[in-house]
Amino acid sequence: MPKTASIFLIFFVFASCKYKENSWLNNYKEIKCKYAKIEELRRNDSLNKINKLGKELAEIKTEISKIDKPIIEELANLENSRSEIVVEYLSKSNQIIDQQTDKFGHNSTPEFEKKLSQNEKEANSKTKVFENKIEFLNQKLAENNKYQELKAKEGKIKSEIAEEYISIKEKYSKQLENLQYDLNYLNAQFKKLTSNLNTQELKTLTKKRDSIKQNPCNFTIKN
Q1: Are 53 and 157 in contact (CB under 8 A)?
Q2: Alpha-carbon gap, residue 162 to 165, rounded angstroms
Q3: Integer Cα distance of 183 and 193 in angstroms
Q4: Which of 57, 33, 34, 37 is nearest to 164 (CA)?
Q5: How far is CA 176 from CA 31, 92, 214, 217, in A?
Q6: 86 Cβ partners below 8 Å, 6+ apart?
Q7: What is the DSSP code (8-state) at residue 215?
Q8: Are 189 and 28 spatial neighbours (Cβ–Cβ below 8 Å)?
Q9: Within 13 Å, how many C-alpha atoms sit on residue 178's CB side?
Q10: pLDDT in tens, 90-105
Q11: Residue 3's pLDDT is what?
Q12: How many CB atoms sit inside 10 A of residue 167's CB?
């Protein structure tokens, strides 16, 4: 083959490879840009619709807190006191059992059974006082009409927010799925396209692809 023809062939192969690379990059850029724009639309859609509901929810939570915060704090204190009694009961029961074991081994006696029963009755009597107070406070919230109305509104808004998320997701899901399919196809093409490149060429093309990922709509592809 003449030298001139050989040079033209090399140039043609090189030009063909560059065309394929730029064609792939342009296609990749186009799809990634479309994907980014649709995701931005979805985010804006979410913000516009859900932020309003979120603000309403925050206001209702504030009103609910004014009613139930003092009661919740009191309930927590009562539960702690009740737990302390249970711990005290268990500790005393263990002492009674240890004393019995030291004297009589694992054999039971009427006196031992009486002490255990008395300890349990005292613990039940003490805890009952706190359990009654806890029940009273819970009933107080249950009978507070304003509180129940606010809780109902809170539940309704939470349901509306969940429905909005589902609606927005469904609105854009098909477009994003189609674009993702195209991206998967392009990623498969990228592997074939780079299979015959040398290390430097692969590094250059990969860098361009990654730059498109970062800023797909504004990236400029240079020949």
Answers
A1: yes
A2: 5
A3: 15
A4: 57
A5: 10, 66, 18, 16
A6: 123, 127
A7: S
A8: no
A9: 5
A10: 999 999 898 888 888 8
A11: 44
A12: 11
Q: How far apart are CA 50 and CA 168, in angstroms?
A: 10
Residue 184, sorted as left (phi over 0), alpha (psi -120 to 50) or beta, turns out to be alpha
> Cα-Cα-Cα-Cα dihedral of 83, 87, 90, 94, to 10°?
180
Give me 78's structure tokens.
Answer: 């009562």
Structural Rg of the chain based on CA atoms: 37
Residue with tokens 């004014």: 66
**Regions of the chain with pLDDT less than 50:** 1-15
Residue ranges of domains in the chain: 13-214
Angle at the Cα of 125 from the Cα atoms of 122 and 129, rounded to 5 degrees: 140
Q: Looking at residue 6, what is its pLDDT? A: 40
Tokens of 58: 């925050």
Residue closest to 50 by CA, chosen among 129, 162, 126: 162
Structure token pair of residue 59:
């206001």
**Predicted local distance difference test score (pLDDT) of residue 103:** 85
Place of tokens 């990623």: 187
